[in-house]
Amino acid sequence: METVIPARLATLGHPQRLAIFRLLMRRFPDRLPAGEIAAALDLRPSTLSAYLAALVQAGLVTQERAGTLRRYGIDMDGVQGTFDYLLRDCCRGRPGLCLDAPRAAGQARRLSVLFVCTANSARSIMAEAILRDLADGRFAAASAGTSPAPGPHPLALELLARRGHETAGLQSRHVDGLRGEGAEGFDFVITVCDRAANEDCPAWPGQPLAAHWGVPDPVAASQGRVGFEQAYDLLAARIRAFAALPFARLDPIALQHAADEIGRLTHTESPHDSLCNQRPGPDRQAGAASAS
């Protein structure tokens, strides 16, 4: 470690290599093709290839081949080993010297969740409504966009109303309005579109737990109501799993892992099932706890 850690820090000392690392951290546990990374960071393929090779050699990034494509993701063992070393050596094992105290998710209070996408017109709007109505007051749900549309998409509002959700008060707004001076912090910030997750935004105050639950854009898919139904069902399945987590019994590391795993869920409920009529009861929550 005496030579490995300096090499890793030197690799991250280059601004563009650091930008690649930060992008892959935001998208973890996803693996991204080189083309998406290059597009997100405006890098030439040859330049990106050299930077990725350096990060792989340093043990910070891994690569795997999927057909003809290579996909890149964070080497979490290497990253955690680096942080553990710095915490023990530089902070002398006292995290209070080096870290802000995160908000405790397990406290007996309402947990605040922010869903973020680019336009804040469909996916994040639907996620806000789903969690708000599913959670029986246990969560405060909100949504915002990095480049918000003038308002929620009409098909999103139509679907939410048809599924039994109250749509009054749903609006598209910019994320900057939720993190200025005097703004309330969040316990969780969850991106639901890849484009928003790829953007290099300022860190949220209060160290909220961050996760990425990428959902295909129903607007861009041009499938009409079918695309919105599919997006809703996937969000509903993930939010149901999230709401059933035993928050009081999970430490921050376990909670982060659970949130990341929820982002991998691909199964959906029946498009004819109403989420509002399937609130998780004690038995379902106990089952989810044992499964985790």
Helix content: 40-55%
Write the CATH fold name of the largest domain.
Rossmann fold
Question: Any idea of the CATH class of the largest domain?
Answer: Alpha Beta
Total domain modules: 2
The main β sheet shows up as: 4 strands, parallel
How much of the sequence is in beta strands? Answer: 5-15%
Distance between the termini: 33 Å
Quaternary state reads: single chain
Question: What can you tell me about this protein's structure?
Answer:
The structure is a single chain. The chain is 43% helix and 12% strand. Helix 7 (123-134) links the parallel strand 4 and strand 5. It has twelve helices and seven strands. The relative contact order is 0.12. The longest helix is centred in the C-terminal third of the chain and has 19 residues, at 225-243. It starts with a helix and ends with a helix. It folds into two domains: 4-98, Winged helix-like DNA-binding domain superfamily/Winged helix DNA-binding domain (Arc Repressor Mutant, subunit A, Orthogonal Bundle), CATH 1.10.10.10; 111-291, Response regulator (Rossmann fold, 3-Layer(aba) Sandwich), CATH 3.40.50. The protein has 292 residues and is of the alpha/beta class.
Q: What are the salient characteristics of this protein?
A:
alpha/beta; Arc Repressor Mutant, subunit A; Rossmann fold; three-stranded antiparallel beta sheet; 12 helices; 7 strands; 12% strand
